[in-house]
Design a protein that fits this description.
The protein contains six helices and no strands. Helix 2 runs antiparallel to helix 5, helix 3 runs antiparallel to helix 4 and helix 4 runs antiparallel to helix 5. By secondary structure, the protein is mostly helical. The chain starts with a helix and ends in a 7-residue tail after the last helix. 76% of the residues lie in helices and 0% in strands. The chain has one domain: Up-down Bundle (Four Helix Bundle (Hemerythrin (Met), subunit A)), CATH 1.20.120.520.
Length: 168
Amino acid sequence: MGRTRATLLKRHPGLVPLSRDHHHGLVLARRLILGRSTNPRADWPADRAQQAARLVDFFETDLRPHFEIEEAHVFPAAARDLDDGASRTRALIAEHEVMRGMVRDLVADPISRLAERLTAFGELLEAHIHTEERILFEQMQAACEPEVLEDLGARIADAASDTPGCRV
């Protein structure tokens, strides 16, 4: 019997907290891309300025700490243990920097071309998360010894416990 999509995306327990964060990021990304929530009961504003404020808040409480944990713990392991890990992690860090800049720009100018900028952020975040989930994490699970992933999971948990507001 062939592997199903659910089987392909099964996560090592050490990476599950980051995958959970990714789920929340994908929900936000879809809302930013569409300019609305697909869940009629969601507390998501229709006003783009309010959506921008939600993005800035989500960035500060969730994404920024998530990026820091990935950059301090996940990416060094990937760079060390994967054949193309160094180049892949450089590209992912560059995307983190672009998103940080987009949020800084949004704070500095929360009005001009707002819909376009929110959509662009959502598209980048969605593509970024898909790369981490479908490529990076899959490769790490295939290439890294279980002990490496367990140690990584412990370091992720420790880092998250030191970061107020971080849901990891």
